[in-house]
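A quick aside before the break. I want you to see a complete sequence-to-structure record at least once, exactly as it would be stored in a machine-readable document. Don't worry about memorizing anything.
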Amino acid sequence: MSFLNPLFLLALGAAAIPVVLHLVRKVQARRVPFGSLRFLTVAPRERVRRRRLKDVGLMAMRMAILALLALAFARPFFPPEALPFLPQRADRSVVLLVDRSYSMQAGEAFAQAQAEVQRRLDALQGDDEAAIVAFDDGAEVLSDLTDDRTLLRSVATGALAAGYRPTDFFPAFQRAEALLQDARHAAREIVLISDLQRIGWTGAFDNWKLAHGITLTVVPVGGGMAGNAFVEAVHVEPERVGARTVVRFDARVQTRGEAVRPRDVTLTVGEVPVGTQRLAPVAAARVTFQQEAARTGSFLGVLALDPDPLEVDNRYYVAYQVAERPSLLVVDGEAQNPRRDAFFLQSAFDLGETARYRVAVASPRRLTPGALRDHDVVFVANVPALEGDRLEALRAYLDGGGRVILSFGEAVDVQAYDAALQALGVGQVGPEVDARRVQGHPAIIGEVERRHPIFAPFDGSSAGAILRPQFRRYVRLVPDSAAVVLGRYDTGDPFLLERDVGQGRLLVYTSTFGTAWTDFPVNEWYVPFVYQLVRYLQREGTVRQQYTVGEIVGLGGRPGEVWEIQAPGNRLFRATVDEQGRAFFRETDVPGHYAARKGAERFVFAVNVDPREAEPDVRDAEEAYAAVVPPSDEVPRVPDRAARSAEAEEAPRRRLWMGLLLAALALFAAESFWANRPARTKRRLDGIA
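That is the input. The structure line, written in tokens, reads:
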């Protein structure tokens, strides 16, 4: 037998009070004057014995009452193992779902989760079996259902660790339910141990609930974040300013709850501090840093906030490339024509030392793989024919990631272009169109995809200005299904198309960049338009260097080549290029800077945590329970584990102490009745007349 309040056992000494009072108190006879003894008789000996027996019985009953009251207040109970002859509780199959998303790194949340796992394992009894599943935006079974307590404790100690991914409860519950389908016991339970981040409860739960018969226990840990500050995003943009390159860093910082206070933001590039700014106590702020790049090449940087309880989202890693000025090659088929395309394109881009681009002009003889490979964007303008080696060189350049802008002119052989553009998957080239013969006046640009990056800057109050250029002639083109029409003339024919070819991109402009067919080159929108064409292709051709934890990083090369990737923590991985010339690196599970090498080629990139997980909003246990358990369950489980476990343990204990209390009350009633029962006296009237 055990006691909940053993201190009350000291009150058992009160049972001796009746004995002590009996021994201490002495009964002394009193002298009473009486006239005559002739009417008195001697009490029988039997009656005296009965009186003494009654007194002893009453004293024993009073002592028992006090002892029973002391035992009742001590709250005695019998542990289940001490009563083997009583029916035991049913064995259980339990799945412990442990949240390891990066929000669990806030404060003591994950330490509390580990302690709760150990407590749950210690509570396993009999033939109970348990499984441990760790989850973030995916679920990993660390241990299948087993009754091996040693194995379960080893897994809980060695394999459980908080990670850097966001929360998604849906795959975790699906995995737990699948495990319980093969459970040995009918009593099946899922124990969710999490900070209950609201962002993790996706819409998938609207059409999914746990199977009937599976009970759920929700254990909140961490107490929720009172507030959090985090770097949401950083955009890095190297810009050419004359002969210099200035790198601009635009960052968005978010602050929630009690974390709204003045704080410092520091930017470091290559271990060298760039600057520190003080943020006002606002919920959202934009921060801008600028740094002049002293050289070309790859750079690594970190934007950091003041520490708070969740520090993993206070650092944002950046990786960027500062390259030489992009090189443009203009291949013009009519070098002697004063209205040639190359003249106007070179005039637009070549501005001396302050130019953003380097421009070279060449004849169609330069359409070779070696010549094209040295340039970022190639204009193929009014080249008579694309066939044979020229077409193969252009296709090889596009397959390797090249960017080409193709236009027409008076020197073009339409039939030769028809075969070339069909081979490239652009479409069929028709005859030249004289717009004045078709509709009596020159064509204008009738419609464009204004949301496309090329035309988006022109969308606004003055956007109609782009419609002013007049096109006397153009080439009619029937696009292939894979080609995208970005703009049309008012005749309905395509004005500008784009088509992905291999890893590169091809833009087809159906008129001329010179004045042979249009007055566009002398229009105020000509220079902004050609710059937008190049910017778009340059942006599309830029290698991505910013990733989120868990994303796959694509690498290129020749089949069979091997990339070596150094990850944070000096971990080394390898990725082999497949037959399609692609390699995939998937181990982006830790935020930080990564460096990939293949021979002399080097590529750096940065990985950051998902900012959605930084939101401190959480659900309470009742909300989480209602989101998962079907409402039609006949015996719902209360999510509050403390209330449930206390009630379950209290029931047998309450029955035992209440029984003692009732016994004391019954004994008190019996004692009162016996003590006050009237004695039976037999009157003898002997000698009375």
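Two observations worth writing down. The first helix runs from residue 17 to 24. Residues 2-77+654-675 form one domain. We'll return to this after the break.
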